[in-house]
Design a protein that fits this description.
It is built from one helix and 31 strands. The chain is mostly beta strands. It folds into five domains: 57 residues, Ribbon (Laminin), CATH 2.10.25; 38 residues, Ribbon (Laminin), CATH 2.10.25.10; 38 residues, Laminin, CATH 2.10.25; 38 residues, Laminin (Ribbon); 104 residues, no CATH class. Strands 23-24-25-29-28-31 form a six-stranded mixed sheet, with no helix packed on it. The longest helix is centred in the middle third of the chain and has 4 residues. GO terms for molecular function: calcium ion binding.
Length: 375
């Protein structure tokens, strides 16, 4: 190889090669510019040359050409920085410009917020979103919190598994003691109902209705209305049977001038009472008492076995009085009877219901001898 000198270096060519120098370009005379560099004459004055418009600049494609008086400059656009002769994108996210999340894009960046927040007016900060004012899917009540929201339910409802829907609570299924008789579930609440013949006392208890006092009975003028548990009974106003005659309400007397009355109680007083079915036993249900100048004698009518209703029992409670002062004439004694009609109410789910106030106290009567008459 043969070495040939060259501008700024050299060439290695085969020895048989020859170098033919290019002819020198002809020198053409140029017009003389009377204006300074970067200006051109215009009439009698010199005006600036806009190298950027004429594309007479050497700015890189990533640079912007900025014309100046008599010259130009090459600058990087916003969001870029100059490295050597090139413009490289600036990663603004490295400088933590955003409160939550920063997304870098060529020449710029954007801020994004976490769910439950939105960009503030400065496009960098994040402010809480009130989801409750923006149609949060809560079926009843919505409470805004920082970055999110909570759904809550009205009384009588519970929040569903999705956290939005409110489902009715069946209070009746939680306890059998909410109501004295029967519990009825309703949307968001419950109510207590009573059996026929009873009315609700307060919100949970059942009390017997005295149909005889309220006039809600169908007894005739010749009958007497007797209030019993959950209902009423119409009885004849005059229940005296021969040889007895009625002397007052519920009282019958056997006249002494009738021979048949000698072996019968002098008087019979009719009384009525009511008890509930399946009453616990033994249970005292009626007290009888006799008062004299010598001593006081009392006895108790006891329920020995459970009874179920509706059913009616009638018992005669006889009081026998012996007068010792007249013993010289023989054993002088008189008797009177209390005819007690006991009405057993129907059985309602083995629940103890509140009787009417007339049933609150245990009846008493004057007598010393108890004689059951029959069912």
């Amino acid at each position: 190889m043969k070495c040939f000198n060259h501008y700024g270096g050299y060439l290695c060519l085969p020895r048989s090669a020859s170098v033919i120098p290019a002819p020198e370009p002809p020198i053409t005379p140029t017009e003389t510019n009377p204006c300074p560099l970067g200006y051109e004459p215009q009439g009698d004055t010199c005006v600036d040359i806009n190298e950027c418009e004429r594309e007479e600049h050497d700015c890189q494609p990533s640079q912007e050409c900025i014309n100046t008086l008599g010259a130009f400059t090459c600058q990087c656009p916003d969001g870029y920085r100059k490295v050597g002769t090139e413009c490289i994108d600036i990663d603004e996210c490295r400088y933590r410009y955003c409160q939550h999340r920063c997304v870098n894009v060529p020449g710029s960046f954007s801020c994004q917020c976490e769910p439950g927040f939105q960009l503030a007016g400065n496009n960098r900060s994040c402010i809480d979103v009130n989801e409750c004012d923006m149609g949060a899917p809560c079926s009843q009540r919505c409470y805004n919190t920082y970055g999110t929201f909570l759904c809550r339910c009205d009384q009588g409802y519970e929040l569903g598994p999705d956290g939005f829907a409110c489902n009715d609570i069946d209070e009746c299924s939680y306890s059998s003691y909410l109501c004295q008789y029967q519990c009825v579930n309703e949307p968001g609440k419950f109510s207590c109902v009573c059996p026929e013949g009873y009315q609700l006392q307060g919100t949970r208890l059942c009390q017997d209705i005295n149909e005889c006092e309220t006039g809600e009975h169908q007894c005739t003028d010749t009958q007497t209305c007797v209030n019993i548990h959950g209902r009423y009974q119409c009885v004849d106003s005059n229940r005296c049977q021969e040889p007895y005659v009625q002397v007052s309400e519920n009282r019958c007397v056997c006249p002494v001038n009738k021979p048949v009355c000698r072996d019968l109680p002098f008087s019979i007083v009719h009384r009525y009472m009511s008890i509930t079915s399946e009453r616990s036993v033994p249970s005292d249900i009626f007290q009888i008492q006799a008062t004299s100048q010598i001593n006081n004698i009392s006895a108790m009518l006891v329920l020995a076995r459970a009874v179920s209703g509706p059913r009616e029992y009638t018992l005669d409670l006889e009081m026998v009085s012996v007068n010792p002062l007249l013993s010289y004439q023989g054993n002088y004694q008189t008797s009177s009877a209390l005819r007690l009609s006991i009405y057993v109410g129907p059985l309602w789910r083995n629940m103890l219901l509140i009787p009417h106030p007339q049933f609150q106290s245990m009846p008493t009567a004057e007598a010393v001898k108890v004689t059951p008459v029959g069912d």
